[in-house]
């Protein structure tokens, strides 16, 4: 199929419909409004249902309900809206239901701003909801990757019976790039949703969707079961891109749109004789810990480059495990890092070494 | 090597977003790498609008233009004040002289004054002022072919507005003539 020039948020909608999404529940918030706008127009044409809920809390609980019935369902929002959805998200994770949640991140805290940011890293990887749960969190760097990952996201959600979050920012949501909607064959073998509440017709016992376990022993057993699932994800769902790390003087770590800016900076540094590599986590959780093992001992530092005050840096420190100095460069509040700013930071760390 | 970084800026309603989209779309039709990044915010009709467009032979890294625009297409005065400093030395600065009396402050740019509104008005449709500026840009840089832009415009306008293609073609032509040495 030919390439189409599309806005990121619309491409999200189109990719979700192509991936079989039939239900969308959401509440408006900038900078992701084109997602519900697109879904309101296109989902009904494709045999689906779009519903604008009265709040984010209502929307995520509608997702909970539809997912419990076995439907392919999604919601999208932006940072403060995702914060509101956290109760529903932990319920969905606790009840082991699949869904896709899109977070087009804007500046925070609080209502913050509406320009691009990555200050939801902790919210999406640590969980803003209660309890020991994890989401599979995927962060594409361009629209093609966003579109391709959508099929993965829905299939992985069904496979693990767990929410999957796709994380972008205002930039990727608003920008236009050529995309191609190609057939994505994922690695997941999906079985029938025999657990779904589809009506017993008097033929089978009730299926129960629930995240309440009043017996502590039962709840602990449930947590062990969930943990086993998260361990499987850690073993099988790590995604990252790594370029020029093996002989790097310095390694930059960045995800999403920030990684594109970092690449420009790396090209400039190369011209000036500084070998900078990049590790780009595509899965924010599970974090690509093993990617760091390829970094040589001689590497002077690892720099986390983020559109936040420094959140991913904690995971980088865990991955580094004291082997390298870990530094940080970031902009926040909707300010976007510049290649020049990154280059200057690297030079400062390298101490003018050529 | 083609590596265009274009800022299109003006009032909301002047068609600056469309202008940028057409450059991107035409580039995509020609198999080039493209991106289009709009400003977005609590803006309204009559407020300022701008977009950053890239057309390149190589994959595009950051879609953000900081101070490295190769061309700025400026449709109103606030945009001149805001973006003149973002163009690289020897870059193109296209100024809609119908609405902007002020001259460019920098002397290291190739500056072109195009009376886009007047040209568009003479053509009988003031709304084509953006296409006049686009025509001037295409003449100067040859970033994409005019025919690719028109193909893109056809897709953007759809069948209902297909009758507007001719006047837009004319506007592009007049814009090109305005900067032809």
From TrEMBL, chain A:
Keywords: Oxidoreductase. This is 3-methyl-2-oxobutanoate dehydrogenase subunit VorB. The keyword Cytoplasm does not apply. Residues 15-236 form the Pyruvate flavodoxin/ferredoxin oxidoreductase pyrimidine binding domain. InterPro entries: 2-oxoacid_oxidoreductase (IPR052368), PFOR_II (IPR033412), Pyrv_Fd/Flavodoxin_OxRdtase_N (IPR002880), THDP-binding (IPR029061), Transketo_C/PFOR_II (IPR009014). Residues 248-340 form the Pyruvate:ferredoxin oxidoreductase core domain.
Automatic annotation (TrEMBL), chain B:
InterPro entries: 2-oxoglutarate_synth_KorC, Pyrv/ketoisovalerate_OxRed_cat, Pyrv_flavodox_OxRed_cen. It comes from the Bacteria. Residues 12-177 form the Pyruvate/ketoisovalerate oxidoreductase catalytic domain. Keywords: Oxidoreductase. The keyword Isomerase does not apply. It holds the Pfam family POR. This is 2-oxoacid:acceptor oxidoreductase family protein. It comes from Fusibacter paucivorans.
